[in-house]
Recover the amino acids of this structure.
């Protein structure tokens, strides 16, 4: 065995008042070898990101490392001066942060920021070479139209593109260790697969070690060699990845796996872990998981479990897992408590489902491109280029596709948050396009949105209670403060947060907790339609299960309609009734969820499904690697927009956009090769059999 590149021993990090500190990392010990991907799992608030910040020595002002050792390539990082540590950051070790919007400088172009990292860590001050390397990195991480993106600012990029820019910046200094804090959270599945392949390629070439902090168990199963599960500041289990997914030993690990959404659970509820991660500013008497563990015994409350190293490189911190193969007794987890609400009768729900709440017909959102001092219009970015969809009460329409295909813009255009340039949006028969802000105001109560970036969508100077209650006050639903705060407390409980959180600011929460705050804000005014823009992308699997159960229960009780914008197809398989697949501003396939996921007819849909990482190796598909990048919506290709990347393209695809083909009452496909694709799929399935 080679000596580990990174050795962490007894690392302890505290926050807050030294007299009563919150010990967010408590005696952490692990090692990572060159060329290895090591995954760190756990819920929001367990200390994963704080572990990464401790390794980088980028703690907040109230944070301090009080014990332990961190050695990188034999160098003790905790003894370095700040000036010496600056040379290590970026050059020897780099970090991809969880929220790219807050990590990128809003007043500098993308090219300037990447070029700065290149020149700082590679010792080349020449501007031209820095720009060339920046362009090369943007191509490597799959940014479409990279020459154009170099001169753009972060606010001009989609969430997925911003995350890829962060990955490019992290790789600019050719580090030996890459700490990736949720690096694929904002990425669609095809770009996620591309980025993971990129990291693997860099690993094989340079021996790069990766500490992968993630809640995506599918990504862990397909990319990592070893993992550690973290809970309340401590490691509770370590294992080789293959053995972990066959038999997790700690009850917490088992519940994480049981929380995964999938199609087989669609008509039931996902398993959730009762309660929440305990506060870390206390002295624990026994096991830290005891209050949430359905298998806890009396000993768990009285004795702190010792760390045990088992066979095959496995370790566990649990009284109930003395050895590999032990069966931990289980009881059903406590379900999420949902506030009582009016339940529509089956008859009225059936009648409602026949008439859409909202219809979109030919919706277009084109952004003009200005040039010169006179700001002349020289072209348009066709972000949304004529989509037609219906939203029904009590049903979920999932809108999927790669980052930059127009999903988020379609949702904003539906709500008139960006002005549509064409088409029609009708809510209960009322045309919304063209209404003034004053006339749109009465509809705001019924139409709400949960934004993709939770931190950027909340005012950092407002308390959480005021943020959630703002809509109640603005729409005069609860004009009195006492009434608003009472409703805010109920909403915080509803999304699994302590009601006392109302008196804190957004920056005091983890990424997953901030997303739950945004969901609470959207639910505050009791809407009829919610646009969910990646609402679970920042959540760990246990909280994701809680939120998905919550969304499903609210839908069944209140008849809510969801437009669910996501790249997580496992969530789609569990929650959605219908699926629409977007590519370059247009819907290329639409149908019932079973039809789309079991029998995709468009080549693009098949490529998306093949790239989804899954835990079960028997269910993995051969990844269809799409050639090239998604074209820019400023210059869409002639003919079928997908033909430059399509493995099944024929001559007609290059010259004519396909006419929509109907395959039944709800199934629609825009593809010249839809029948050819079906034949090829049949032949391929026979070959596999």
């Amino acid at each position: 065995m080679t000596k580990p590149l990174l050795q962490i021993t007894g690392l302890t990090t505290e926050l807050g008042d030294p007299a009563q500190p919150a010990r967010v990392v408590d005696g952490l010990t692990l090692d990572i070898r060159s060329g290895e991907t090591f995954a760190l799992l756990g819920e929001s608030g367990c200390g994963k990101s704080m572990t990464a910040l401790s390794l980088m020595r980028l703690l907040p002002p109230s944070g301090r490392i009080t014990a332990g050792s961190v050695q990188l390539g034999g160098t003790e990082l905790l003894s370095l001066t700040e000036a010496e540590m600056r040379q290590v950051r970026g050059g020897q070790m780099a970090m991809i942060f969880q929220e790219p919007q807050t990590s990128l400088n809003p007043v500098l172009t993308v090219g300037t920021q990447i070029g700065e990292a290149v020149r700082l860590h590679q010792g080349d001050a020449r501007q031209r070479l820095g720009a060339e390397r920046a362009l090369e990195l943007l191509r490597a991480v799959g940014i479409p139209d990279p020459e154009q993106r170099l001169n753009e600012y972060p606010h001009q990029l989609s969430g997925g593109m911003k995350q890829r820019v962060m990955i490019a910046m992290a790789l600019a200094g050719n580090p030996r260790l890459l700490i990736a804090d949720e690096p694929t959270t904002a990425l669609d599945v095809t770009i996620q697969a591309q980025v993971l392949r990129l990291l693997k390629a860099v690993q094989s070439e340079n021996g790069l070690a990766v500490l992968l902090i993630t809640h995506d168990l599918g990504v862990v199963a397909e990319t990592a060699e070893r993992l550690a599960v973290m809970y309340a500041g401590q490691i509770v289990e370590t294992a080789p990845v293959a053995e972990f997914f066959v038999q997790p030993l700690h009850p917490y690990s088992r519940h994480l796996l049981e929380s995964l959404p999938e199609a087989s659970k669609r008509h039931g509820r996902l398993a959730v872990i009762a309660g929440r991660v305990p506060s870390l500013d206390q002295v624990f008497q026994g096991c830290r998981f005891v209050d949430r563990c359905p298998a806890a015994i009396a000993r768990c409350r009285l004795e702190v479990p010792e760390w045990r190293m088992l066979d095959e490189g496995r370790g566990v911190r649990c009284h109930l897992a003395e050895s590999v193969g032990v069966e931990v007794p289980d009881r059903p987890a406590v379900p999420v408590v949902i506030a009582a609400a009016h339940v529509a009768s089956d008859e009225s729900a059936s009648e409602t489902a026949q008439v859409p709440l909202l219809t979109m017909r030919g919706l277009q959102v084109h952004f003009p491109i200005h040039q010169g001092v006179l700001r002349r219009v020289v072209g348009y970015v066709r972000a949304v280029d004529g989509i037609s969809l219906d939203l029904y009460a009590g049903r979920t329409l999932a809108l999927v596709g790669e980052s930059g295909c127009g999903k988020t813009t379609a949702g904003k255009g539906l709500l008139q948050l960006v002005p549509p340039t064409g088409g029609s949006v009708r809510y209960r028969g009322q045309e919304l396009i063209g209404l003034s802000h004053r006339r749109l105001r009465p509809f705001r109560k019924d139409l709400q949105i949960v934004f993709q970036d939770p931190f950027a969508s909340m005012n950092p100077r407002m308390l959480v209670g005021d943020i959630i209650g703002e809509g109640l006050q603005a729409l005069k639903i609860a004009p009195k403060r006492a009434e608003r705060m009472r409703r805010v407390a109920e909403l915080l409980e509803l999304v699994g947060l302590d009601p006392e959180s109302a008196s804190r600011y957004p920056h005091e929460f983890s990424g997953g907790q901030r997303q739950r705050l945004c969901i609470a804000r959207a639910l505050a005014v009791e809407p009829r339609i919610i646009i969910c823009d990646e609402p679970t992308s920042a959540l760990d699997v246990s909280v994701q299960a809680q939120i998905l159960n919550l969304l499903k229960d609210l839908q069944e009780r209140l008849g809510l309609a969801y437009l669910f914008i996501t790249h997580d197809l496992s969530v789609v398989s569990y929650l959605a009734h219908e699926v629409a697949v977007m590519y370059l501003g247009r819907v290329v396939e639409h149908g019932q969820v079973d039809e789309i996921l079991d029998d995709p007819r468009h080549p693009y849909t098949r490529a998306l499904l093949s790239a989804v990482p899954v835990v079960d190796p028997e269910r993995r598909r051969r990844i269809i690697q799409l050639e090239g990048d998604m074209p820019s919506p400023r210059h869409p290709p002639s003919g079928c927009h997908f033909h430059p990347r399509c493995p099944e393209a024929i001559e007609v695809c290059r010259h004519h956009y396909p006419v929509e083909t109907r395959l039944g009452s709800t199934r629609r496909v825009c593809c010249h090769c839809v029948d050819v694709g079906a034949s090829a799929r049949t032949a391929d399935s026979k070959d596999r059999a």
